[in-house]
Amino acid sequence: MSDKIKHITSSAELAALFSSTTYVAVDFYADWCPPCKAIAPIYEKLAGQHAVDGILAFAKVNVDHVQDVARTHGVTAMPTFMFFKEGRQVAVNGQKMIQGADPQSLGAAAQKLGGLAEKRKVEATAA
Q1: Which residues are paired to 60 by β-bridges?
Q2: In sequence order, which ranges of 25-102 are alpha helices (DSSP H)?
Q3: Torsion sign (Cα): 74, 100, 5, 94
Q4: Are 21 and 54 a contacting pair, CB within 8 Å?
Q5: Could you list the active site residues?
Q6: What does the alpha-carbon distance between residue 42 and residue 46 come to, in Å, rounded to a whole number?
Q7: How many whole angstroms separate alpha carbon 48 and alpha carbon 14?
Q8: Orientation angle between helical segments 103-126 and 34-50, nearest 10 degrees
Q9: How far apart are CA 56 and CA 26, in angstroms?
Q10: pLDDT value, residue 2
Q11: DSSP state of 45
Q12: Residue 1: pLDDT band by 50, 70, 90 thresholds?
């Protein structure tokens, strides 16, 4: 597992990540889900390429272990990827969420968030 991925074990932990990080990509998954297992290495690679401390985080939520978080966000299929800015769900490339193992859409969303994170990092450094 990549150390760039935050494994969320409670709603409080996710709330803390939202409050400390501008952008957060969340992978809602289940251990028994074959498509989740198939896309996991891709998500790890994207996290390794694009995560920026305090600006862009990649998180995973096991829907069977943290059911309240999955329920709060209306997750009905696995995997489901959602994107947040300052704790609010946002659309990336016109999609509020990606359902299913779609490496192209996920890669494009991570690249877009990564670009926003780098821009914010440069702005913070210049300030």
Answers
A1: 7, 27
A2: 34-50, 67-72
A3: negative
A4: yes
A5: 33, 36
A6: 6
A7: 20
A8: 20
A9: 11
A10: 54
A11: H
A12: very low
Short-list 88, 80, 87, 9, CA closest to 43: 80
3-state secondary structure (DSSP) of residue 113:
helix
The gap between the terminal CA atoms of the chain, to the nearest Å, is 34
> For residue range 56-97, what is the model confidence (pLDDT) as tens digits?
999 999 999 999 999 999 999 999 999 999 999 999 999 999
pTM (2 d.p.): 0.95
Q: Which residue has the tokens 């309240």?
A: 68
What share of the chain has pLDDT > 90, as a percent? 91
Strands 56-62 and 5-8: parallel
Residue the block writes with tokens 């670009």: 115
- The one-letter amino acid code at 119 reads K
